[in-house]
Structures are given as C-alpha cells and as structure tokens.
Amino acid sequence: MLQEVVDDFVASLASEGVERAGGSHNTRMAYRNDLGQLCTYMLKQGITTWSEVTPDHLLTYISSMREGQVYRPATIARKLAAFRTFFRYLGYEERIKEDPTVDILLPPIVRGVPHVLNTTQINVLFRLAEQDTPFGLRDFAMLHLLYATGIRTSELVALDLNQYQREHGFIHCSGVRGRSEQDRCLPLTPAAVDAMENYLLHGREWFLRSFGEPALFLNHRGERLSRQGFWLIIKGYARRAGIHDLTPHRLRHSFTLLMLNNGMEVESIQELLGHVHLSTTQIYCQLIQA
C-alpha cells in the first residue's frame, strides 16, 4: 500500500503542470529512491498506510540517518524536502488529514568554499589539447567554452551548431529544467572564439557522419557527445596534468572567480551562470575575501 502511493506520486510529477516543479527523470528517480527508503523504514515500524505516519516517526527516521554520520546534512535536507513535497501531495489528494512534516525543521547546511583551478593549472590543460588533431581541436574548444562562460556540462553537450553566434561572439544557451529555465546569451572571449573557429573549420568535419547533424560537439561516431563522454575526456586531461579531483564543475567555479576578480557584479554573474538564487552565487565571494 505504501509503495503503490509513492508510485502514484512519482507518476504525477511527470504530468503537465507538475513537470516544471521537478518533473525531470533524474528528479523523479531521486524521489522514488528517497521515498522507497522511507517506505521500508515505516513498514518495519508496523506502519501500513501513510495516514498513520506521525512527526515522531519522521524525527526518529531522521535521527537514524544522522547516527554514525551515515548521511551528510545536505543529503538529509534533500530527503526531508522530498518528504514534504510528498505529504503535501497526499494532503491535496485527501489521503491524509494532517501533514506530519509541517513542524520539522531542515538541518543546517554548512556550504564549503568551491574549489577552483589556478591560472597555471588552466594553462596546462589548454596546452595538453593538441591542436593538430581533430580531437584536440574539439577538446580545446570545449575547454575554452567552459572557462570563458561557466556553462554547465549538460548545457555544453546539448549545444547545437546554430547556438554559436560567431558574428556576435556569444553562445545562446537554453535553460536547464530544474535549475534555470531562462535562456542566456553567454559572451565569449577572443581566445574562445578562435578556438571555436578552428574546431569548426578543421575539426568538426572529421567527426561528421551525417550532413544534417545539429550537435555542436561530436564524438568519434559522429554523434552528439554525451555527458559521460565529456567526463572521460576531462578525466584524461586531469590525469596527464596531474590535477586531482578535476571535474567540469571546477572549471565553472574557476570562471566565476575570474569574473569576480575582474570586478563583475555578483548579480551579473548570477545571470551568466543561470543560478536561480543569488545566495548560490554569493558563496563564491568567500574566495576573494582575504
């Protein structure tokens, strides 16, 4: 009975009108996982219907997650947020009379300072992309695009050829559901424009298998490069450069620090990054407070 209701809720997230609030596939899978674990716990407590769940049940479950530091505070907060959304749904569907999550506070989350690359490390990465091969031209263009715009990996690999506006020197970036739904025009540095032009003139054609392929960045099969494929490329460069824990997001962090050091207003950086909340961007200000 418990799991069947969860299945109904997860299915509702994909329906029209609810999708904007978190209907992506990854979000639905996260809800299914978090609520599935809650189902298992409640069944062990002898709970068979959601109307039997009390605040004490939830608080005990949250305490069990905290014990032994099994889950980080951020993870517990995410799970509790999922529970709140779920119980609001149950109230709307009139399956419960009272919401047991109403008076439960989210655990405090201490956010760390983002890790960034220094100028030397970035230059090493650029040098490792051999510009006398199609692969090197492609990788050089992608690295420059990441560092020049702070674009997300998912946005980078989703770019189509027509989203690159050479004459205006910018990339038109479509919003990502669940993060920023606003389209953004991301200005490119002259170095990034040069890297893009070299890739398009001397590299992309080598990958191309179908004349009508819209994707900007292609893999060796002539198909759109995937997030996993890009991740493997970054890992390869990180290993060669001797940079530990390099992720595409660290390049995004490095872009943000560069913009702050250049005197750009935090609100302008927020717009470029596509952050929904200004507080997310303000975390980076700690990097220049010294």
Overall description:
With 290 residues, the chain is mainly alpha-helical. The protein has 2 domains: 2-92, DNA polymerase, domain 1; 119-288, hpI Integrase, Chain A (Orthogonal Bundle). 53% of the residues lie in helices and 3% in strands. The chain has 13 helices and 3 strands. The protein has helices spanning 2-13, 25-44, 55-66, 73-92, 119-128, 134-149, 153-157, 190-202, 204-207, 227-241, 248-261, 266-273, 278-282, and strands at 164-165, 170-173, 184-187. Strands 1-2-3 form a 3-stranded antiparallel sheet, with no helix packed on it. Helix 1 runs antiparallel to helix 2 (25-44), helix 5 (119-128) crosses helix 10 and helix 6 (134-149) crosses helix 11. The radius of gyration is 23 Å and the shape is elongated. Residues 16-23 have low confidence and may be disordered.
Give a quick set of tags describing it.
single chain; 290 residues; mainly alpha; DNA polymerase, domain 1; hpI Integrase, Chain A; 2 domains; three-stranded antiparallel β-sheet; elongated; Integrase_SAM-like_N; DNA binding; DNA integration; CB
